[in-house]
Amino acid sequence: MSRLPIRLWGDPVLRSKAQPVGEITEEIRTLAADMAETMYDAPGRGLAAPQVGVSLRMFVMDCHWKDDGERAPVVVIDPEILDASEETAMHEEGCLSIPDVPVEVTRPAEITMRWRGLDGAVIEQRLTGMEAICAQHEFDHLEGRLIPDVLETDARAKAETVLAALEDRAAQGETA
Asked: What CATH number has the domain bearing residue 75?
């Protein structure tokens, strides 16, 4: 396993809609392991393939390792959001591609998601709490959306200075 460079705000791969994974090969399994190592090292709760420069519809997440110290990464391949609750929840979110810019984001409190695991098995699960928040955040990355895209106008305006600096770093080829 190896740590992968994380792409920063302004990198065009973060704005592209990711392609389906299709067949789960040894290369995909290695990518998933490298992504998990990168997520833990960053340290984050989730990481999408576009964030490491790979335009594929997959992400890893582990929502509770920071709280309980136990690592249990979930690999999500070719996810679909089947349903979202009308009830919403506001939570402070950060993004490894937009470091040091935590913002309050409102999202559906619960979602039903379907995906494939590394063994190819189809998983359908109702996600709540931190799992719902993290899965929606990472799913946004697969659609080419980032946190500022889902912020209200004044919240986005507060982050503009930091975002401009990150765009400059990305244009120079920097990664996190």
From this structure: 3.90.45.10
